[in-house]
Amino acid sequence: MNFEQKILSIAPETKTRVITAVAGVSLLLILLIFGGHFGASVVTIGIAALMCMELSKVFYHLSDKEEKTKVLLGTAWLVIFINLFLPKSGLESLVCAFIGIFSYFLAVADRHADKLKDHFNELIYTVFILVYVVMFMSFLPLVRRGPNGLKWLFLFLLINWAGDSIAYFAGRKYGKRKLYPLVSPNKTLEGALGGLAGSMFVALLFKFIFFRELSVVGALFTALFVGVFAQIGDLCESLFKRSYGVKDTGNILPGHGGILDRFDGVLFTLPVMYLCVLIFS
Fold this sequence. Notes:
The protein is mainly α. It has two domains: 35-144, no CATH class; 146-281, no CATH class. It contains ten helices and two strands. A two-stranded antiparallel sheet has the order 1-2. Strand 1 (178-180) and strand 2 form a beta hairpin. Helix 3 (65-85) packs antiparallel against helix 4, helix 6 (139-145) crosses helix 10 (259-280) and helix 8 (189-210) runs antiparallel to helix 9 (216-244). The radius of gyration is 20 Å and the shape is globular. The protein starts with a helix and ends with a helix.
């Protein structure tokens, strides 16, 4: 296959990815810009629900998996709605959700008398999903709600998008040493460092043009912390997928895979970003 044929074979997939990205980003920005705290909560509810559904398909295998998925979604929505009307109540709502989930699994345990261990393992998976997805995503409205919330949110998105994109191109051009081949054989150290450098450059650019209130130190450290944990989050999701033999967690985003495939780094960085808001505001 010559170079022109390779380009033509890649073009349809690239076009699909670009169209999906533009449509998704446009909807996301509209809700975050004009919706305020409520819009951020709507984004949180939508993304968290889709992630929960994707993970439930991987973790739930017993006969009542559909019912457990509905219970998981109902609990996720309840926790997010509580945080909408009572911000910063994440820990309390998570504890109450755990009590409710545990009680539900106790009530239906007699269905699985011969598979109690598998039933209990699915309880553990449910708690993991609530923490990993619901609680981490619940920091998004908190970032939007704080002082200069919209600017912090744009800075957060730019750091993630720039870091991911620049890491990809830097890895393609300069990548030689593998970052962590056991879980992600395509990622390189050069790509990771390029992504961090790109995140810090974009953060400084945004600070000088749009976010004068933020100090240079605050912009650099925010980009560094968020950039590092975005890459750790990406590797952690790769570990999960490799452990369970999953290539993509879903196919809802044409050309991109599942929601979790695209927002894995965001999950890890939302709590970190909220901490940076508290420190550098």
